[in-house]
Write a structure and sequence with these properties.
This protein has about 160 residues and is α+β, with helices and mostly antiparallel strands. It has helices spanning about 5-20, 30-35, 65-85, 150-155, and strands at about 40-45, 45-55, 90-100, 110-120, 125-130, 135-145. A hairpin with a 5-residue loop joins β5 (about 125-130) and β6 (about 135-145).
């Protein structure tokens, strides 16, 4: 079983555990499925690495992968990493992306690796890099998330 298949299986277990607590989660999230992310490495509390295929439908007028979709792919790495680090739902406070080179069709895919920098009782601080198959840096990002407590979960009716 691949890392990705193991990850998908663990999402179903997580969904069942959260449902038992009255929390309805969409796992895997529709965005992950739409972006066709394949997770390559998952180390709870430390890092998550995935492969994102180039899809023409997510391009801008100059035919490069649109930055907002690459930002979404980054968020689909930060989100799961924050969840498995906190062992509960989190919410994004900030997501900052810096693009260094365009993600173009001939690359076929990019690789995103996100890591936890620090976890406190209420927050998780993370960073990520996006590389081409040849190892060129395409983008880097930082995200800060808040770990939702039970009262917050009830307010957002997750």
């Amino acid at each position: 079983m691949s890392v990705h298949e193991q990850w998908q299986k663990s999402l179903q277990v997580t969904k069942e555990q959260m449902n038992a607590r009255g929390i309805d989660l969409q796992l895997p999230p529709p965005s992950q499925l739409e972006l066709e992310i394949e997770y390559l490495e998952v180390i709870p509390g430390k890092k998550i690495k995935g492969k994102v295929p180039f899809q023409k439908r997510f391009t801008n007028p100059i035919k490069t992968y649109q930055g907002g979709f690459l930002g979404a792919a980054l968020d689909d790495h930060f989100g799961p990493l924050s969840y498995i680090t906190a062992e509960r739902p989190c919410t994004t406070l900030s997501l900052n992306v810096t693009f260094t080179k365009p993600f173009i069709e001939k690359m076929e895919f990019c690789v995103i690796e996100a890591e936890v920098l620090q976890k406190t009782k209420s927050f998780i601080f993370m960073r990520a890099t996006v590389f081409s198959p040849d190892g060129d840096l395409l983008a880097h990002a930082e995200s800060h998330v808040a770990i939702l407590n039970e009262e917050q979960l009830q307010k957002v009716k997750v």
